[in-house]
Write a structure and sequence with these properties.
The complex is a heterodimer of chains A (281) and B (328). Chain A is built from 8 helices and 13 strands. Chain A is α/β, with parallel strands linked by helices and 281 residues long. Chain B is built from 8 helices and 17 strands. Chain B is α/β, with parallel strands linked by helices. Chain B has a 9-stranded mixed beta sheet, with helices on both faces. Chain B has a 5-stranded parallel beta sheet with strand order 14-13-15-16-17. Classes of the chains: A alpha/beta (281), B alpha/beta (328). The complex binds flavin-adenine dinucleotide.
Chain lengths: 281, 328
């Protein structure tokens, strides 16, 4: 099996953001970046598939130099080699441009399966993998919670998450793109040995020119949606922020809730806690 | 702007999904503002009764595509059908709910037609005659205004709950029109083998009066214990955000949100939960919401009645002590 895992680097979840002067992006100076959450699950799934059926896992990331950290952590987790697509002209690209670039980068590489995360924590368009499948003429399945590839490598049986706690089991022919949902597995941590080995693994760098892409096909010009401006959302509800030390704030909160009779039904609520207690203790 | 808005409605077990009613209501409003015609599109097998019901209720034209090959959803059939609908109807806009189905086929369809797909919108604007949508980015901390680019049709999906202020109106042109689209079997690459309901857990949070919920901010399974302790002293049920159940700190049945339970307790105490939209849709109709989070910009505060900006490990132990005092 030749397996590709696409990793995006995104700002850490607790980041505080500043919108940049163009109002179409954020200022990156003070941000710390990490690998997108569902992409880590996607890589773990790729590594497990290789362990089961043999083959090779390649990780791919598109972005400036900082994404090398994400690539290296993917190699340290166990990927065999990496592709780094990097070019200033990629800035401001939407999912279509990114999928187009990935499709170009791998068109001659005979992958059997591509794993991506369901969506990125930053732009959350949730479509790079699906567009990629369409551009390659492959099948796809999104929001995947279980993957079983047939021994002969021709089909994949996957479980997709649906609404209201429903799941569907579908079969699709390979090659295919699978977008992986968090919780599908427990991703491994890189071992010290893995980190050492990663240093010797190959990272191939490709620019827009290497991919045969012109500036007009990239960035906001090549994009199919028009990102006009970013702004901070207005609050919908008037929140009463309780000030003071943790003790003071907690005390005020309990007084308020008590006064508003939020606890008026305590005795009858007891069974809820008993129900939980059975499981936990 | 003459033209048509097509609402793609979704159904399961013979009923329209609530999100689809929401999209129809908003579609009617938008069609009125832009002076466009609205049609509802329904795809499936044996959906004649449903189409009648939808058409009567909203008084709009319903376009049905009925085929045995559409008994279960597949992206190939949906894309084939909708690209033909696009050709025949030349719509200005395709509107749909942001559902597990839309995520699966809409990017493929838009790409087939050389267009873009704007997912998960929470608001819209018409500025100087131009329609724009607003969507949340960076985990709900920033809003992004997105414009339509290139030629129509445009593809847009709406976040559940964000447009429920637009109630479905009863218009005067109910009618059902059937359209036949050939669906050769070899085209349908995806085979649906079964649809399964996750095992019903023992925990039914929908009846709970008080829920204490914890998120990734609790840091580990061991540290999550203080959430259980607070719930215990308050006689409350325990809820969680997805990372908590993904990580195995609690069983899946405690998860609240779009892929978990929907709850409406009298009191919801969210601890170390950032307030991603997928979590909010499961709890934002609680009567009183308390948020405890160290990040003053966390989106959970935008739905909270009371907020404490602080460390859960400092605040929650005090709450437990105070609750014990009150209970005496
Ligand atoms: C298709 C799909 C379905 C999904 N379904 C669901 C769903 O049903 N339910 C759900 O919850 N999510 C769901 N998600 C995931 C969702 O997008 C978010 O990733 C998730 O809700 C985040 O959980 P969280 O708030 O616990 O974690 P984070 O977003 O990481 O937030 C942790 C918060 O804790 C705060 N914090 C950290 N340490 C402390 C401390 N010591 N004291 C106080 N505060 C602290 C931080 O400031 C931060 O705000 C879904 C996602 C997708 C793509």
């Amino acid at each position: 099996m030749r397996i590709l895992a696409c990793l995006k680097q995104v700002p850490e979840k607790d980041s505080r953001y500043k919108i940049d002067d163009t109002a179409t992006g954020i200022r990156e100076e003070d941000l710390v970046f990490e690998t997108n959450e569902s992409d880590v699950y996607a890589l773990e799934e790729a590594l497990r598939l290789k362990e089961k059926l043999g083959g090779e896992v390649v990780v791919l990331s598109l972005g400036e130099e900082r994404v090398l950290k994400t690539i290296k952590s993917g190699l340290a987790m166990g990927a065999d080699s990496a592709l780094h697509l990097t070019d200033p002209a990629f800035r401001g690209s939407d999912a279509f441009v990114i999928a187009t670039s990935i499709a170009r980068a791998i068109s001659d590489q005979n992958f059997d399966v591509i794993f991506t995360g369901v969506q990125s924590e930053d732009m959350a368009f949730a479509q790079t993998g699906t567009i990629l499948a369409q551009l390659l003429g492959w099948s796809h399945a999104t929001i995947v919670m279980e993957v079983n590839v047939s021994e002969d490598g021709k089909n994949a049986r996957v479980k997709r998450e649906l609404e209201s706690n429903l799941f569907e089991v579908v079969e699709i022919p390979l090659p295919a793109v699978l977008t992986i949902q968090s919780g599908i597995n427990q991703p491994r941590y890189a071992t010290l040995k893995g980190i050492m080995q990663a240093k010797k693994k190959g990272i191939r760098t490709l620019s827009a020119q290497d991919l045969g892409l012109k500036n007009s096909q990239l960035g906001s010009m090549g994009s199919v949606v028009d990102h006009q401006k970013m702004f901070f959302p207005e609050k919908k509800k008037k929140t009463v922020i309780l000030e003071g030390t943790p003790e003071e704030a907690a005390r005020t909160l309990m007084e308020r809730l008590h006064k508003e009779r939020c606890f008026s039904r305590w005795p009858s609520a007891e069974r809820n806690s008993l129900c939980l207690a059975r499981f936990w203790f | 702007m003459p033209g048509k808005i097509l609402v793609l409605a979704e159904h399961r077990a013979g009923k329209l999904k609530s999100i689809s009613w929401e999209v129809i209501g908003f579609g009617q409003k938008l069609a009125e503002q832009l002076q466009q015609e609205l049609k509802v599109v329904l795809i499936g097998k044996a959906i004649e009764c449903l189409a009648d019901e939808v058409s009567r209720k909203c008084g709009q034209k319903v376009l049905t595509i009925i085929s045995d090959r559409c008994e279960a959803y597949t992206p190939e059939a949906h894309c084939q059908i909708l690209s033909q609908v696009a050709q025949q109807e030349s719509p200005f806009l395709f509107l749909m709910g942001h559902t597990y189905q839309a995520v699966d086929f809409a990017p493929k369809l838009a790409t087939m037609l050389g267009r873009g797909f704007i997912p998960n919108c929470v608001d819209y604007q018409i500025e100087a005659g131009r329609l724009q949508f607003v969507r949340q980015v960076f985990n709900g901390k920033i809003n992004l205004q997105v414009g339509l680019k290139g030629e129509p049709p445009y593809f847009v999906s709406l976040q559940q709950g964000a447009f429920n202020a637009y109630e479905v109106q009863s218009r005067q042109s109910p009618r059902v029109v059937n359209l036949t689209v050939p669906l050769p079997e070899e085209m349908l690459k995806r085979k649906v083998l079964e649809i399964v309901q996750a095992a019903q857990g023992k925990v039914d949070l929908s009846q709970a009066e008080i829920i204490v919920a914890g998120g990734r901010g609790l840091a580990s399974k061991e540290k999550f214990q203080i959430i259980l302790d607070l719930a215990h002293t308050l006689g409350a049920a325990v809820g969680a955000s997805r990372p908590v159940t993904d990580g195995g700190w609690l069983p899946k049945e405690h998860q609240i949100g779009s892929s978990g339970q929907t709850v409406t307790p009298k009191l919801y105490i969210a601890c170390g939960i950032s307030g991603a939209i997928q979590h909010l849709v499961g709890m934002m109709n609680s009567s009183c919401i308390v948020a405890i989070n160290k990040d003053p910009n966390a989106p959970i505060f935008s739905v909270a009645d009371y907020g404490i900006v602080g460390d859960v490990f400092k605040v929650v132990p005090v709450l437990i002590e105070l609750a014990k005092e009150i209970r005496k």
